[in-house]
Amino acid sequence: MSVSAPKKVVLAYSGGLDTSIILKWLQTEFGAEVVTFTA
Q: What GO molecular functions are on record for this protein (predicted)?
């Protein structure tokens, strides 16, 4: 069974460096649209 790459990802975004890196990585690695929630 193969797993397909996500087309859209919702990310709870703290605004920190680690979350910023993951955000760009998801876009680059999977071509995913990243929707963020910042509280």
A: argininosuccinate synthase activity; ATP binding
Q: Quote the tokens at residue 37.
A: 């929630």
User: How many angstroms separate the Cα of 20 from the Cα of each of 1, 27, 29, 35?
Assistant: 31, 11, 14, 12
Taking 70 as the threshold, does the pLDDT of residue 36 lie above it?
yes
- Residue in 27, 28, 25, 33 with CA at minimum distance from that of residue 7: 33
Among left, alpha and beta (phi > 0; psi -120 to 50; other), residue 25 is: alpha
Give the start-end residues of each E strand in the chain. 8-12, 33-37
Q: In the chain, where are the structural domains located?
A: 8-37
